Amino acid sequence: xxxxxxxxxxxxxxxxxxxxxxxxxxxxxxxxxxxxxxxxxxxxxxxxxxxxxxxxxxxxxxxxxxxxxxxxxxxxxxxxxxxxxxxxxxxxxxxxxxxxxxxxxxxxxxxxxxxxxxxxxxxxxxxxxxxxxxxxxxxxxxxxxxxxxxxxxxxxxxxxxxxxxxxxxxxxxxxxxxxxxxxxxxxxxxxxxxxxxxxxxxxxxxxxxxxxxxxxxxxxxxxxxxxxxxxxxxxxxxxxxxxxxxxxxxxxxxxxxxxxxxxxxxxxx
Length: 269
What we know:
This protein is of the alpha+beta class.
């Protein structure tokens, strides 16, 4: 079993604040990691590369700026892609979770960028790479735990059409997808779709779409030669100021500051 702070991938940097342990990892090449267990509950945010993670023949692909939550005692194996991968992990010590009296899901949760888990994870990453200020890190960690707790038992009430709506948002997020168009495809009333979407995702379809646009911008910010104006248009924003305003609201930092955080991580290799 891997104890807190133990990983198969090399650790670039680490910081502990109260009952939260933050680690930035870099696996430089392709690798198959045998089945193993993790002592602590944790979140992984993929920064670069991709890999597969799962157990019992079910493997989920994790791409850049996906986030995944694994409860304590999770057993799984991983397969790192050919170019390696970089990760940011947030581990939660068990006693701290007990003190908070939080009931977290007992299964793995994957956030592809539209739900509520990735963004507090990225805010944590920005604080980790810049100030390391304990109060900010604690605040973002609590926000992240709240987002994870919100996933509990959601699947029991998910209608069959909901996955189709989310898939279309992921496929066409740079464009404008009105609620009535999504509702027509789902075969439900627009008001019903809007209410169900907010109940299950805790945001509107439009806010979910904006988060996907920001996630796409995060990926493009890894390429230093892309001007912010081009990134804004490519990701469906009207201009650079629109990108900056939405990016700051969702991630807590500006595109330029976030690009510098990624560059600082790359410089450590």
